[in-house]
UniProtKB/TrEMBL annotation:
Reduced FMN (FMNH(2)). The lineage of its organism: Archaea, Methanobacteriati, Methanobacteriota, Stenosarchaea group, Methanomicrobia. Its cofactor is FMNH2. Pathway: Metabolic intermediate biosynthesis; chorismate biosynthesis; chorismate from D-erythrose 4-phosphate and phosphoenolpyruvate: step 7/7. This reaction introduces a second double bond into the aromatic ring system. This is Chorismate synthase. It comes from Methanocalculus taiwanensis. One of its GO terms (molecular function) is chorismate synthase activity.
């Protein structure tokens, strides 16, 4: 499944070590300002090779808009965006052709497809998210029109919630040949009431699906999330006043529909699977072997995944906005 969204949909293509990645965005309304320069700042926040806390693979991730835009504005036609790759260095993966990296998708891709691109994990690579970010940048352009904004922050790295120590946590793990994960938080502000389809298509379900669709995200909570399970109703219910809700334990969604308060989401990001410490694994012959992974890996995915999560949220929200406009405009 490469396509995401209903009215505002995107299909990504490309593998980590292929010549390029890209996305086709369909359903974007006409007249929205869109240029490469408007997309590039989002790409810059995600691309690898920027500092010592991330993979040193130096990809410029310059986008090229191929269609759907004329004189700086969308035309309502499919928008194709190309992101050439220039720093593959696929030789790093020669020894991993038939050995499965614990924690990565190598083993399950092998079982499902048999024939797979082992270089960088092919399509299971976090590099695929470059295409999602390009699509998300288009969604952001549409959301600005609606007065909706999204921001995110890191809450924890490796269980440490002191922002002054985030970088150190990552660099210490890297020095050990290990990796660490963490927790991120997202806020969507300015959302109107009424976004989301009740029951199966709940807005919370769409958001959780979008977040879980990002490699390495293993938990999602909305509002109080897991903490709600330990609260009483009188603590958790948000008192209602003429001016609005007194608190926001709901995280901006009730019954699968946005209630006008900020939407608050937290995601758990697992530690990067590819580490250089020796690990036990098997090869495609089923033999037990030891693996020590070299190459250019993120010692922590958290800092780079922030903008990816923001973009996935933007894609969910613009789709919900368009669905709601179709519903109320009938
Ligand atoms: C932005 C981003 C960067 C990533 N960087 C790496 C990496 O350098 N090395 C690695 O082994 N996994 C990396 N991953 C994680 C793998 O892509 C992911 O663990 C793998 O696809 C398996 O999916 P799962 O963790 O959801 O089970 C990255 C993921 C993202 C979203
Ligand atoms: C290249 C990117 O991230 C990559 C995500 C990734 C993985 O296994 O997910 C592994 C590394 O790439 P490779 O080993 O194939 O050179 C990261 O650098 C990117 O995000 O643009």
């Amino acid at each position: 499944m490469n396509t995401f969204g209903r009215l505002f949909s995107c299909t990504t293509f490309g593998e980590s070590h292929g010549p390029a990645l890209g996305v086709v965005v369909d359903g974007c309304p006409p007249g929205i300002p869109l240029t490469e320069d408007l997309i590039q700042p989002y790409m810059e926040r995600r691309r690898p090779g920027r500092d010592s806390t991330m993979s040193p693979r130096a990809e410029p991730d310059h986008v090229e808009i191929l269609s759907g835009v004329f004189e700086g504005r969308t035309t309502g036609m499919p928008i194709a965006i190309l992101i050439p790759s220039v720093a593959q260095r696929s030789g790093d993966y020669d020894s991993l052709r038939s050995v499965f990296r614990p924690g990565h998708a190598d083993y399950t891709y092998h079982l499902k497809y048999g024939h797979r691109d082992h270089r960088g994990g092919g399509r299971s690579s976090g590099r695929e998210t470059a295409a999602r970010v390009a699509a998300g940048a288009v969604a952001f352009q549409c959301l600005f029109n609606q007065g909706i904004s999204i921001r995110s922050r890191i809450l924890e790295i490796h269980g440490n919630s002191n922002p002054d120590q985030f970088e150190e946590e990552i660099l210490v793990a890297k020095e050990r040949g290990d990796s660490v994960g963490g927790i991120i938080e997202l806020f969507a502000e300015g959302c109107p009431t009424g976004l989301g389809d009740p029951v199966f298509g709940k807005l919370d379900a769409a958001i959780a699906g979008a977040m879980m669709g990002i490699g390495s995200i293993k938990g999602v909570e909305i509002g109080e999330g897991f903490a709600a399970a330990r609260m009483s109703g009188s603590e958790h219910n948000d008192p209602m006043q003429k001016s609005g809700f007194a608190t926001n334990h709901a995280g901006g969604i009730l019954g699968g529909i946005s209630n006008g308060d900020p939407i608050v989401i937290r995601c758990a990001v697992k530690p990067t699977p590819s580490i250089s410490l020796p690990q036990q694994t098997i090869n495609s012959e089923g033999e037990e072997v030891e693996i020590s992974i070299r190459g250019r890996h993120d010692p922590c995915i958290v800092p780079r995944v922030l903008v990816v999560a923001e973009c996935m949220l933007a894609l969910v929200l613009i789709d919900a906005v368009l669905m709601q406009k179709r519903f109320t405009g009938f």
